[in-house]
Design goal:
about 600 residues, alpha/beta, three-stranded mixed β-sheet, Aminopeptidase, elongated
Length: about 600
């Protein structure tokens, strides 16, 4: 074996990241049974290089460092074999040459991957899986083809990658390059898993468990920078009025004939400056397509929030809010109208409690979580500038003028503490701050889980469901051009809301110029109900603030060890009556019947 020109400094579990020559690098996430090689022959764009550096075990180098790279590769193979007891599969990637094309009469480059595999059974089995995975890759209405041949030797595969991501002038189609790198990277993980799975050795439970199991400094840095921008403003406080109670009193005193005049906090940031900071974050260097996607989605959501702040109290705010929260779909409106059409009499309010008593109950529930683990460091604040209950980060804010029926306290604390605060602290226990601040589009299901928690503890009354339905109808009317007074009268006249309740709904929907958010509560609740009814576990949603579309990503990150199982589980899930309600739901309880008559006071 050729002596390497540099000493390789492996960590306890095989961790290794060192420069090879001027432009090369060796990286091992941990001891893995495969190694990806790439020799970069040019400084131009290379799909093979991008796929290689997204791998958890790779060696890349330039032609001038061939001798050094050969020695490093040999040592890597020897070290892996010694540690794992098997010779690793060596996968060599290269780019197919790009044929010259005329700009005036361009032709599509061929979409074919050339695969060559050693003739030993393990390599051939791995190549079969690679071929199957590659033939499933499609781009721009074309499906990738495969040309295959056999190599001499053992435990090796070479792949020449198609170059359909390059323009005739040599520049890159960025989205196509990204999609191809993700698809081929995924195919390599399947290949490595098939290589192991010979019937004698234990293959991982899922091929993606062979992906990266450690966060690079670049990923942590990008996450911190995104978090810093996100924490530089409080979105909900920034778009919510500070004089709701006074505005309501004046509005009702004037016989609901003049729209209220709301007042807002001055913005703590310059949205344009925050956007510049946001897009100064380079997410292309993360070497992990999944994390790059999650952080890119979150950056886009923060961008949309900043656009809303920049257009606060202008005609542009309303359409900006629909980009983030969507319109009211016909099915959701039907659900809302069905709930509002119920003729059951509402229960009497019974004994009421005020803000100090609500705060005391909240601190009691928080202390119960802290008894289990001290990291549940939540704060409770009584504030004059908020209405109702609101969670922001680790803080539960309670409007100082809040008053509610006593039988609703348990339900609302299950919503605010056992969902919003719990997922914040579970997310804070993960390696990335994005899980506590929330992945993109998490709010819908997060609020749906909150309403589900109210139902699960027996506190989702018909009045509460009608409130959520009224919000949907109000948002729909607002988006179709109705004004504040129109919506207020619609709620009072057509749906039987009391004047104060109708004002509260209207104020939320018309804050800052018209906000579509309030439709997400009923939408999210229906979404959670559908998940539970179909037998889907809610366990991934306790890990942090995520959206349903992220469940597969969370499963992969768990397999790779990049996220942990949740520290805290909602307290209400330990209750016998909660289990009984969920069992009834899975047995076909109609959605329109999901309010809990047992919560009505005698």
């Amino acid at each position: 074996m050729i002596e390497p020109a540099l000493e390789l400094n492996f960590g306890e579990h095989g961790e290794l990241r060192q420069a090879v020559g001027e432009k090369g690098r060796v990286h091992l996430d941990r001891w893995l049974p495969y190694l990806v090689l790439h020799r970069s022959q040019t400084d131009g764009p290379s799909l093979a290089r991008r796929i290689a550096i997204n791998s958890p075990s790779y060696l890349i180098w330039s032609p001038e460092d061939d001798e050094m790279a050969r020695a490093v590769a040999e040592q890597l193979v020897a070290e892996i074999e010694q540690k794992l007891g098997i010779a690793p599969l060596v996968i060599t990637l290269s780019d197919q040459p790009v044929p010259l094309q005329s700009r005036k009469a361009p032709t599509l480059p061929r979409f074919v991957a050339e695969i060559a595999a050693a003739d030993d059974p393990d390599s051939q089995r791995a190549a079969d899986r690679l071929e199957q995975a590659v033939r499933a890759i499609s781009a721009d209405l074309r499906v990738c083809k495969v040309e295959r041949c056999t190599l001499e030797g053992a435990c090796s595969i070479t792949v020449q990658l198609p170059s359909i991501h390059l323009r005739p002038d040599g520049a890159v189609y960025p989205q196509l390059e990204h999609d191809l790198s993700v698809a081929f990277g995924d195919a390599l993980l399947q290949t490595a898993c098939a290589f192991i799975d010979d019937g004698a050795r234990a293959a991982p439970p899922h091929y993606r468990a062979l992906g990266r199991g450690a966060l690079l400094a670049a990923a942590r840095s990008a996450d911190r920078k995104l978090g810093k921008v996100a924490r530089s403003f409080d979105f909900l406080l920034s778009v919510s009025p500070i004089n709701t109670s006074d505005a309501m009193m004046q509005f009702l005193a004037e016989k609901a004939n003049r729209p209220p005049e709301f007042q807002y906090r001055p913005l703590a940031i310059d949205p344009d400056s925050a956007k510049r900071m946001l897009y100064d974050i380079d997410l292309s260097i993360l070497e992990d397509p999944l994390l790059e996607r999650l952080l890119t989605e979150k950056r886009r959501e923060i961008d949309q929030q900043l656009t809303m702040l920049a257009t606060r109290n202008t005609p542009s705010f309303r359409p900006a809010s629909t980009i983030l929260y969507g319109n009211v779909e016909p099915e959701l409106l039907d659900d809302a109208l069905g709930l509002l059409g119920s003729t059951d009499a509402a229960p009497p309010r019974g004994e009421s409690v005020e803000a100090p008593e609500i705060a005391e109950a909240a601190r009691g529930l928080i202390e119960a979580y802290r008894t289990f683990d001290q990291r549940f460091e939540a704060e409770v604040e009584l504030r004059d500038d908020v209405s109702g209950l609101m969670v922001s980060g680790p803080k539960l804010m309670i409007g100082s003028d809040s008053i509610m029926p006593m039988h609703r306290v348990d339900a609302l604390l299950a919503h605010e503490v056992s969902i919003h605060l719990l997922t914040h602290f579970n997310g804070a226990a993960q390696g990335l701050t994005i899980f506590r601040s929330g992945l993109a589009n998490y709010e819908g299901v997060q609020e749906g889980l909150g309403v589900f928690a109210e139902w699960a503890v027996g506190g989702l009354t018909r009045t509460r469901l009608r409130l959520l339905a009224g919000r949907v109808v109000a948002v729909d009317a607002m988006l179709h051009g109705a004004g504040f007074i129109d919506v207020f009268h619609l709620l009072v006249r057509d749906y039987g809301f009391r004047r104060r309740g109708a004002f509260g709904i209207s104020a939320r929907v018309f804050r800052s110029g018209g906000m579509a958010k309030d439709a997400i509560y009923l939408r999210g609740f229906r979404q959670v109900v559908d998940l539970v009814t179909s037998g889907v576990s809610l366990a991934p949603f306790w890990l942090g603030k995520i959206a349903p579309d992220h469940a597969p990503a969370i499963e992969e990150l768990l397999l790779r060890g990049l996220v942990k199982t949740p520290v805290f589980i909602p307290e209400f899930l330990s209750r016998t009556d909660t289990h009984e309600r969920i069992a009834r739901l899975r047995n076909g309880l109609p959605f329109q019947s999901m309010f809990n008559p047992e919560t009505r006071p005698c």
